[in-house]
């Protein structure tokens, strides 16, 4: 039995019609990912959102060392946007990001065990929970060490999105860092999934090929030109999901590769070596609360 909630979730993810979503879920035996593929094969899904609903509150915080060689980013979650705007909450997130950048860690548990003042990071989180009266969670982190370039960061909307970008560059100047920050802003806006074509795994490519192949056959295209269409659509897909292939958000006349070439003429060779992007709460399901009903229920007690 396919629930109305599952149909709504699939519709929100793909933009397809309610009946089409129900049929796809039925065909996929309730498997959401498979249902998305069914809709895409039929040309009914405008896009497939892989990240899930973004519902949890909190902040993403970054830290970059003065020499721009070491950087870290953390996601620190709480229950409400009221607490996420609290200076003590955001301040702790910034302190944790700085600690990660300055210490050797290999897991989130290592981060929680780092010394902060006279206690640990986890102790500081526990104390803040007691102070602000809301549950909190240090969810994830990433650390980047730039050996042959610089790292730059960008924070969007006060911590809703955070990005780190590492360059491979001849120089470690402020100007090169500014280029990296421009790319970080682009990453925040367009959310690329991969650095370049070589970063895309074979399984993803094959899955996309199969989807486009079924699409083309469903469109009634002759079998002898289906493969050419598939290859063309795969190339378009790669341009959409690979950072260096995307049109630069600040100048759509250039791709990111083109932008880097232009800046390299002035600042010495610059390439993007890696990037990381966190969006607060991505993939976390948060219970929807009817506050009016909740207040009414409390008044009846």
From TrEMBL:
Molecular-function annotations in GO: translation elongation factor activity
Gene3D superfamilies with a match to the protein in the record: 1.10.286.20, DNA helicase RuvA subunit, C-terminal domain, Elongation factor Ts, dimerisation domain
Location(s) in or outside the cell: Cytoplasm
Keyword entries, A-Z: Cytoplasm, Elongation factor, Protein biosynthesis
Ranges of residues in domain Translation elongation factor EFTs/EF1B dimerisation: 71-282
Transmembrane domains' residue ranges: none
Annotated region (Involved in Mg(2+) ion dislocation from EF-Tu), positions in chain: 80-83
Xref: InterPro entries: EF-Ts_dimer_sf, Transl_elong_EFTs/EF1B, Transl_elong_EFTs/EF1B_dimer, Transl_elong_Ts_CS, UBA-like_sf
GO CC list: cytoplasm
Role, per record: Associates with the EF-Tu.GDP complex and induces the exchange of GDP to GTP. It remains bound to the aminoacyl-tRNA.EF-Tu.GTP complex up to the GTP hydrolysis stage on the ribosome.
Similarity-based family: Belongs to the EF-Ts family.
This protein's name: Elongation factor Ts
Taxonomic lineage of the native organism: Bacteria, Bacillati, Bacillota, Clostridia, Eubacteriales
């Amino acid at each position: 039995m396919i629930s109305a909630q599952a149909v709504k979730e699939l519709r929100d993810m793909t933009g397809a019609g309610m009946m089409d979503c129900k049929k796809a879920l039925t065909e996929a035996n309730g498997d959401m990912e498979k249902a998305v593929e069914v809709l895409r094969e039929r040309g009914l899904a405008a896009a497939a959102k892989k990240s899930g609903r973004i519902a949890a509150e909190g902040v993403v915080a970054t830290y970059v060392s003065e020499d721009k060689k070491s950087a870290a980013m953390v996601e620190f979650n709480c229950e409400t946007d009221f607490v996420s705007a609290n200076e003590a909450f955001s301040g702790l997130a910034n302190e944790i990001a700085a600690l990660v950048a300055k210490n050797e860690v290999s897991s989130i548990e290592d981060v929680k065990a780092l010394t902060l003042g006279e206690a640990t990071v986890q102790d500081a989180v526990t104390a803040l929970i007691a102070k602000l009266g809301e549950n909190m969670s240090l969810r994830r982190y990433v650390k980047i060490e730039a050996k042959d370039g610089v790292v730059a960061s960008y924070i969007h909307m006060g911590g809703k999105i955070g990005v780190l970008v590492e360059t491979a560059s001849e120089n470690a100047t402020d100007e090169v860092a500014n280029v990296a920050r421009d790319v970080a802003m682009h990453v925040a806006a367009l959310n690329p999934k991969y650095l370049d074509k070589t970063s895309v795994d074979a399984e993803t490519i094959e899955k996309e090929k199969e989807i486009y192949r079924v699409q083309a056959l469903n469109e009634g295209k002759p079998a002898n030109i289906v493969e050419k269409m598939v290859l063309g659509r795969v190339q378009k897909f790669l341009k959409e999901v690979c950072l260096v292939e995307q049109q630069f958000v600040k100048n759509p006349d250039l791709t990111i590769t083109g932008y880097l070439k232009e800046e390299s003429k002035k600042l010495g060779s610059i390439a993007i070596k890696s990037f990381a992007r966190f969006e607060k709460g991505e993939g976390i399901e948060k219970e929807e609360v009817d506050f009016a009903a909740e207040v009414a229920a409390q008044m009846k007690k």
